[in-house]
Write a structure and sequence with these properties.
It holds the Pfam family TRAPPC9-Trs120. It contains 25 helices and 48 strands. It is α+β, with helices and mostly antiparallel strands. Among the domains are: about 180 residues, Rossmann fold; about 170 residues, no CATH class; about 150 residues, Sandwich (Immunoglobulin-like); about 120 residues, Immunoglobulins (Immunoglobulin-like, Sandwich), CATH 2.60.40.10; about 110 residues, Immunoglobulin-like, CATH 2.60.40; about 120 residues, Immunoglobulin-like (Sandwich), CATH 2.60.40.10. The longest helix has 30 residues.
Length: about 1250
């Protein structure tokens, strides 16, 4: 039973001891089963011999029960001195659990006797000693009165209950003897110690007459005490503190306090009696001034009053014995009588003890549904008006003949519920009273306050009324109280209970043992839990952690001192690895306590992991990381928790708390590229110390054979980006559908083609880039990692994780451990190769940090920071409203990297280039040969070169026909695995070129349908081009309808003479040869026939004339030759129009026979209009212009003609009739041009053409 249970004074403490060769596991198992199954024993189950009548016979009150509290620790000397004032603290029964007793008739009894002697020598003060014998066989030794035998072959609960019933029956027999002896005692000692105020005053004034401090009890010097008789029937000797001695009694004590305010104002000292000071010596037994006796009273105190006080004290102790024996009704009656006497005699401490016993008895009677009445002594106040009103309010004690039994029971429980708050306050005030300069030890008062606060807290949660559920919780601690809404109760508030509980919290100046300090803190914590005061509960847990750490370190030092080793070496003295793992798994209680502390103080703890494989892998949950509170307080508390786990030798807990410590120090954010100063809570030295503690713990346990002691990495935002390095020149991949296009992927201009794109910066609008990898080929992956701490972090291994499961994997090749620098974003290179082909996404990476387990980290590509809860009431809460408020803010966006793994492909490398150092020395227009040798380094896959391309027109592939580099399908070149092939090219020098590149596009042979990518081998070449012949100052003249004249200057810019020759394709007559000295210029003229009449663009005409005209040059030794590049021949737009000729051409001729025309004859002039455009012309007009100012010729009809249209590439004719009037030469001129009709807005380009004709007119025939 819990020592802070409200009914703890009614429990019988049984100390269990191992006897013989029983193992620790078997002993612990038996004790655990006894605590579970045999904590409450009903008196009706106990059997006594029919001829044996005892004082505490179970037959008197069979409805009662025995509460048994099993323990394996011995009672301290301080607790022994509190008996019999608090009899429940001292073990009354010693239960030896033994195995290995021989079944032999000769050896068995001797071993049993030896075991009994062992128990008697070790514990002579107990009431009863019993031996629980575990045997495998049914037939064995005959068990005596103090020996009970059970089978150890999976014993059931019934066997244990039967055995404990025998132990309890025998205990009641001997407990009756003890009760009779105590009842006959004339006096009982009150335990006490010098009051704090008195000690402080005496220390200040330095009075030599200061009474001795310490306990008011005398430590027994002999072994006589509460020991059970060796032979049955022998009387049990009385304890020394029950012997007669002259008392020192204080008089004139103030009345007891009945409220919390009066408790704090209670006087701590009392004046001693003058007669007492005169009747005893000053230094004689100064610590026993509160004893009562029938002899030796002073003249101011009558002997009868002292005798009554002694009998009242002995009666209260005897009543407690009846209560512990299950005689609750008798105990209530006896306590009521004797407490009244103590109250009248102003014996405050015993008055309080009696009232507490009455409360416990009534609670047990109410729990057992037995009838009882609340005594008048439990009502507050005196015999005045207030007491009368309170009694009339509560004391509704009607006869059972008028009320049913259950109604009377309910009325008593209701009166008890109403009386408890004031009654418990009164008891607390009485406990605070003192007798002279003595007061009760702090632990007695503190534990009583905790027990009272437990009752008040349960009563407060039950809205001021006791019922079966709350009574069952108070007595048996099961089941737990259901959560209910806390409401105000008349006369009882949560603040008043918390105030009383705060007085029970021990301080450092209370001078109590460390174990008592810890136990009191646990009791205070339990009451705060019942009240639902999480903040105060967390504060108590913080103090509890500190005290537990001190206690564990002290125990460790003592153990090391007993073993003769240094305390620091005790870690290596663990028995085995299995025992260490068992200790790890048994630390659930500490973990639960630590979790509660963290929840109260806003600390986000890492989950506890016993290995690297006991958890479900998933992405980090960022929504739950909502720390709150002061950073300094969190770090300080985490340091205390780390010290606690170090004291418990729990490396898993140490790793967990160290990781949580470093996690609480870094900002909860995905940082940007510019970390801000002073973002971390602790200094760099403190960070280094905690990181070193992680490494030291892992190293120590690795040496001991436990390699899996690792920590969790504290920053879930470790991985910030995943990208792939730019492929090498010989490793580039291009889609096959782009082969043969004029513009390759890498030659396209960068950037978005639009001047302004409103969606360029909008999230999730850009299509993700898909990286193309080749199966089984190594590719460099670049990972961007962040480190927010001020210390370096060592990365041991990195493995990329794909979304395709185990099938799609990226194998890491030759990764070298790297160190991540402090407070930075750092990129590391990771060679990877896909093992299968297909499309998948990279969702994160599994990264192994030094001394940390391998963890999965998602890709957090954008900066993000956690936002604190907007409402303070949501901080640290796990309600749905709080979770919804915490998750309402923006969450970190996890990214993925799209990857397309193509099947295995060959790999070509350049083995040899005929140009030395891949450098070409050329003259402008010169032609040279270039040979390239490539090798297929793939040992399994043949390669086929499907296309060759270059970027500036310098290279031509040498084949059966002269072809510019760039082909597909007709002349594929296959390179077998491990073999080489030679490819020949023609190179032409072009002025201004400095470099060129040869691209060989290849893939696997034969080409498969799933091969959607090809590889490109890029061969860069450097070029140096010197000038030779140059052309400039071009001039174009129209010669005829079918030809034009072209002339230009040809200059020699080289340092040697060159032989040149000019020619026009398809016209050998226009050629010209010659020799041009260095620096000389020659004018070249040629007539060129027009090759087409169309409305093509003028730029095309410029390219056509460059192709039709060739200027070749060569040196005199014919070692070098080439062609002049006519691109430098700049032709203007007007010159190009002359070359092209007019699109609309008009011609005139005379229709008729002969060329002679006479005066007065009619001459028909025919005009032909030719349309060489590719589209029909619009409406047009043809006008005939006669000489003006002279009347040499006349016309018949109008001088103009309007025509509708002329078809494309066709002509039209129109005729005019004129009559010469005078002899001589007459010039006729005709003009044709387009016209615009009314309402025609879509008019093309305007044009106009003209022609002229000269008529020779002779004299009229016969005019001479």
């Amino acid at each position: 039973m819990d020592r802070f249970s409200p009914v703890a004074p009614a429990a019988v403490r049984i100390m269990c001891l191992p006897v013989g060769s029983i193992g620790s596991i078997a002993f612990k198992t038996v004790v655990d089963r006894l605590q579970i199954a045999c904590s409450i024993v009903k008196l009706e189950q106990l059997e006594l011999p029919p001829d044996q009548e005892v004082l505490l016979s179970p037959k008197v009150n069979p409805e009662g029960s025995l509460f048994l509290s099993y323990t394996t620790s011995a009672t301290s000397e301080h607790e022994q001195q509190l008996s019999p004032y608090e009899l429940f603290r001292e073990p009354l029964v010693v239960l030896g659990i033994a195995t290995g007793i021989s079944d032999d008739v000769a050896e068995g009894p001797a071993q049993l006797k030896q075991a009994a002697q062992y128990l008697r020598e070790r514990h002579p003060r107990v009431v009863h000693r019993h031996l629980l014998l575990l045997q495998t066989s049914q037939d064995g030794l005959e068990a005596g009165d103090n020996v009970t035998r059970i089978s150890c072959d999976q014993p059931g609960e019934d066997e244990f209950k039967d055995a404990i019933c025998k132990v309890a029956a025998r205990f009641l027999v001997e407990f009756s003897t003890y009760a009779k002896a105590l009842q006959a005692s004339p006096n009982v000692q009150t335990p006490g110690q010098t009051a704090k105020a008195v000690r402080k005053a005496m220390w200040l004034i330095g009075d030599d007459r200061r009474p001795a401090s310490g306990s008011g009890t005398a430590t027994p010097t002999n072994d006589t005490g509460l020991s059970s008789p060796v032979a049955e029937g022998s009387p049990r000797p009385l304890p020394r503190n029950l012997q007669s001695s002259p008392p020192r009694q204080s008089v004139g004590s103030p009345p007891p306090s009945t409220s919390f305010d009066e408790i704090q104002r209670t006087a701590l000292t009392r004046s001693d009696s003058n007669a007492s000071r005169g009747s005893s010596g000053r230094g004689k037994r100064a610590s026993s001034q509160d004893r009562t006796s029938v002899h030796g009273f002073g003249p101011e105190i009558s002997k009868s009053k002292a005798k009554d006080r002694g009998k009242a004290r002995a009666g209260i102790v005897t009543a407690h014995i009846h209560m512990m024996a299950g005689q609750w009704s008798d105990a209530l009656r006896m306590l009521t009588d004797h407490t009244n006497v103590a109250r009248k005699l102003n014996d405050h401490l015993w008055h309080a003890k009696g009232l507490e016993g009455i409360v416990v008895s009534m609670l047990l009677l109410a729990w057992a549904h037995l009838s009882f009445s609340v005594p008048f002594i439990c009502y507050p106040g005196s015999e005045g008006e207030g007491h009368t009103k309170h009694r009339s309010k509560l004391s509704v004690n009607l006869g059972t003949d008028l009320w049913p039994a259950d109604a009377a029971y309910q009325a008593s429980v209701r009166r008890l519920s109403t009386s408890l708050p004031d009654l418990l306050k009164q008891i607390v005030g009485l406990y605070a009273a003192a007798e002279g300069h003595l007061e009760l030890p702090f632990i007695v008062v503190a534990e009583a306050k905790i027990r009272f606060c437990e009752i008040l807290s349960v009563l407060f949660k039950a809205k001021g009324e006791l019922n079966d559920e709350t009574l069952n919780y108070l007595v048996k601690r099961a089941p737990s109280l259901p959560p209910t809404a806390i409401t105000a109760v008349a006369g009882l508030t949560r603040g008043s209970v918390a105030g009383l509980l705060g007085e029970a919290q021990p301080q450092h100046d209370d001078e109590i043992a460390l174990i008592d300090h810890i136990q009191l803190l646990t009791g205070v914590y339990g009451v705060y839990s019942t009240l639902g005061m999480d903040r105060k509960k967390g504060s108590i847990l913080k103090d509890l952690v500190t005290m537990l750490t001190v206690a564990l370190n002290q125990a460790r030092k003592l153990g090391a001192a007993e073993a003769g080793i240094h305390p620091a070496a005790s870690l290596s003295m663990q028995p085995s690895v299995n025992d260490t793992f068992a200790a790890f798994h048994r630390s659930g209680g500490i973990d639960a306590m630590v979790d509660q502390i963290a929840q109260v103080f806003g600390i986000d703890l890492m989950p506890r992991r016993l290995s690297d494989h006991d958890h479900h892998e998933s992405a980090q949950s960022f929504a739950t990381w909502r720390p709150f509170g002061a950073d300094v307080l969190r770090t300080e508390l985490l340091s205390y928790l780390i010290a606690l786990y170090e004291a418990t030798l729990d490396p898993v807990g140490v790793m967990r708390l160290e990781s949580s410590f470093l996690r609480s120090c870094v900002p909860c954010a995905a940082l940007d590229s510019k970390p801000r100063p002073n973002e971390n809570v602790i200094t760099r030295e403190e960070q280094f110390r905690h990181a070193a503690n992680i490494a030291r713990t892992a190293q120590v346990y690795a040496i001991r054979g436990i390699p899996n002691i690792t920590a969790d990495y504290w920053d879930p935002f470790l991985l910030r980006a995943v990208d792939f390095a730019v492929s090498e020149t010989s490793h580039s991949l291009v889609p096959r559908e782009e082969l043969g296009s004029k513009v390759k992927v890498d030659d396209r201009p960068p950037g978005y083609p639009l001047l302004y794109d409103p969606n360029a910066k909008r999230a999730n609008t850009a299509s993700p880039i898909k990286h193309v990898l080749v199966r089984n080929d190594s590719t460099v992956c670049v990972l961007t990692l962040q480190n927010p701490l001020d210390i370096s972090v060592d990365i041991e291994s990195v493995h990329l994780v794909t979304g395709g499961g185990e099938k799609m994997r990226l194998t890491t090749e030759d990764f070298n451990p790297v160190s991540l620098g402090p407070r930075c974003l750092q990129q590391i290179s990771l060679p990877v190769s896909p093992t299968v082909s297909g499309e998948f996404d990279i969702i994160g990476a599994r990264i192994k940090i030094a001394c940390c387990r391998e963890q999965f980290f998602p890709i957090i590509s954008t900066p993000w920071a956690a936002s604190a809860d907007l409402l303070v009431k949501h901080q640290g809460q796990w309600t749905p409203a709080a979770r919804q408020a915490s998750q309402s803010g923006p969450m970190p966006i996890t990214s993925t990297v799209a990857v397309h793994a193509v099947p295995a492909m060959p790999l070509l490398e350049v083995e040899h280039v005929s140009a030395e150092q891949a450098s070409l020395m050329l003259l402008d227009g010169e032609h040279q040969e270039l040979d390239v040798v490539v090798r297929n380094v793939n040992s399994a896959c043949p390669a086929v070169i499907s296309e060759v391309a270059q970027n500036n027109g310098l290279l031509w592939l040498r084949s059966s026909k002269r072809q510019e580099a760039g082909f597909a399908g007709e002349e594929e070149i296959v390179v077998k695995p491990g073999e080489t092939t030679k490819i020949s090219f023609d190179v032409q020098g072009i002025a201004g070129a400095s470099q060129t590149r040869l691209d060989l596009y290849y893939g696997p042979s034969p080409t498969r349908t799933e091969d959607c990518f090809a590889r490109v081998l890029r061969i860069p070449l450097s070029v140096t081009v010197d000038a030779t012949l140059q052309v400039h100052h071009a001039r174009v003249e129209d010669v005829s309808e079918t030809a034009f004249a072209l002339s230009f200057d040809l200059a020699n810019c080289w340092h040697k003479s060159l032989h040149y020759s000019t020619l026009v394709r398809n016209d050998q007559s226009s050629g010209e040869d010659g020799v041009l000295a260095p620096g000389k210029i020659v004018r070249i003229s040629m007539t060129v026939q027009r090759w087409s009449r169309s409305d093509d663009k003028l730029e095309k005409l410029s390219e056509d004339i460059i192709r039709r005209i060739e200027i070749l040059w060569r040196t005199f030794d014919d070692a070098r030759f080439g062609r002049v590049n006519l691109k430098s021949l700049a032709l203007s737009t007007s010159q190009l129009e002359v070359i092209r000729g007019p699109l609309h051409r008009l011609t005139m001729k005379v229709v008729g026979e002969g060329d002679e025309h006479r005066v007065g004859s009619f001459v028909v002039v025919r005009a032909r209009l030719r349309n060489d455009a590719k589209k029909n012309s619009g409406p047009l007009i043809v006008e005939l212009h006669l000489p003006s100012g002279e009347r040499h010729i006349a016309s018949i009809g109008v001088l103009h003609r309007i025509l509708p249209s002329v078809q494309a590439n066709s002509d039209i004719e129109v005729e005019f009739v004129v009559c010469p009037l005078l002899a001589g030469s007459v010039e006729l001129r005709m003009i044709a041009h387009d016209v615009k009709l009314l309402g025609d807005d879509e008019r093309g380009e305007s044009w106009q053409t003209e022609a002229s004709l000269v008529l020779d007119v002779g004299e009229k025939v016969g005019s001479r």
